[in-house]
Amino acid sequence: MSLFLTILCAILFGSTSPIMIVLSALYMAGVWRLLQKSGLQGWWALIPGAREYQLSRCAGREPEGRMYSMITVLDIVLSVVLQLISTTLFDIEITSAETIAIRLMFIAIALAALILVKIVYAIRVWSGLIDVYGLRKRWLWLCLTNYTQWIPALLWGFHPKYQPEWKVEDLRAEMARLATSGSAKVMDEGLTVNLKERAATEFFQKKTLLRDIHMSIPQGHMVLLLGGSGAGKTTFLNAINGYEKADAEVMLNGSNMYTQYKKMQYEVGFVPQSEMMRGKDTVINTLLDAAKLRLPKDVSAKLRRERVDEVMNIFGLQPVKNNLVEKLSGGQKKRLSISMEFISNPSLFILDEPDSGLDGVMARELFVQLRKIADTGKIIIVITHTPDRVIDLFDDVIVLAKDSARTGRLAFYGSIEDARKFFQRDTMEQIVKSVNRKEEGGDGLADDYVLKYAEVQHG
């Protein structure tokens, strides 16, 4: 077999063995029909990498499919390199052959490790397919090797007895039905979010990250933002503060965050989870530097110093103002990190896990201080993974959930007590569990609550 045909067979079929080529062809034929049954184009079965990704969509395991796809492509690349080295190894001088043989050994080891990882992701994707077709888990044994994978692919693909419980395109249509038409009324004072869509391009196709999120938050409210992993909490916050623009209208006290961004950047404070401070600076110098960056350029040095003193008093940092940042306790560092963003006296204050790394007492003290700030008329939105220990300090809760199409949706916005009634759960952690997918340890009720909330909104 020529070198060109050898490479071509390795890419298309993953092998140059005649038997494996036949088995791979049977497998691709079965996958072609499986994709068609799920409402996708069958010809994706002919493209290595893309084939695995499309199968994962049929299984409802798209995130795993992305990794499965990349690993498959890398597996093919290493296999081709291995084949090329093996083919040329005996046509070169012995000294070079020894060097290449060593490299060949390392590539083989890497390939073996890659195959193990590939098997892990294959288990996840094929387990999802087994669930979609309502079959028993023992089918999985046939799905994990190239010698037997063609059997379930052909049977499920061509036998009319085997039908998926849902189709990929049907899911899109179903979740489109859950769209909340209309929008939240814009308030003169407060935050109004009317987000139609936040999308990105992944794997050469449009991926909707967030959709149909509408709410109005009055001034003086402290709001908890809940949602499982991948529900779009950070994406939502970035859309609000203008860092990642969406197809949305975000109004803060009557001003548009997108069209008036230069003016509004001083009105929003965002405290990320990671602390970005120089350890060798003192507390007061850190805040003075923050004041230069976050206050308008026409603010005098005297007024900046007065604002820094005011913020240090608010957050109890006056006693340690001359201490180095690296010498502060965990709680003091958190307060300093928050103080840096609060320098500009923002109307909207967003905090991503401000209690991370703090014990219960210090976390409580921090949230009590945030409550006091909200009571001055500020809007505060907080992400925390331990909400129940401070839930009495919040006014409202936003619950984002990842629907069947893996899009972040609004499952609830309202008071804490209304949230408990809506979800029929006593704690916030139980609410998050209810909307998380089953494979993530949740109850898998995201679609139910997204639809329920949409129906409540429209009466």
Using the coordinates above, name the CATH class of the largest domain: Alpha Beta
Rg of Cα set: 28 Å
Structural class: alpha/beta
- Could you give the count of β-strands? 10
Residue stretches low in confidence (pLDDT < 50, at least 5 long) are none
CATH superfamily of the largest domain, called what?
A: P-loop containing nucleotide triphosphate hydrolases
CATH-defined topology of the largest domain: Rossmann fold
Q: What is the makeup of the main sheet? A: 6 strands, mixed
Euclidean distance between termini CA atoms: 70 Å
Please tell me the CATH architecture of the largest domain by its name.
Answer: 3-Layer(aba) Sandwich
Shape summary: elongated
Q: Helicity level, as a percent range?
A: 40-55%
- Arrangement of strands in the largest sheet: 6-7-8-3-9-10
Portion in strands: 5-15%
Mean pLDDT: 82
Task: Characterise this structure.
The protein has 459 residues and is of the alpha/beta class. It has 2 domains: 3-165, no CATH class; 174-267 and 346-457, 3-Layer(aba) Sandwich (Rossmann fold), CATH 3.40.50.300. Helix content is 49%, strand content 15%. It has helices spanning 3-13, 18-37, 50-58, 62-88, 94-132, 140-143, 150-158, 168-177, 233-240, 261-264, 283-294, 301-314, 330-342, 360-374, 416-423, 428-435, 446-457, and strands spanning 191-202, 205-217, 222-227, 247-252, 255-256, 268-271, 348-352, 379-383, 396-402, 408-415. It has a 6-stranded mixed beta sheet, with helices on both faces.
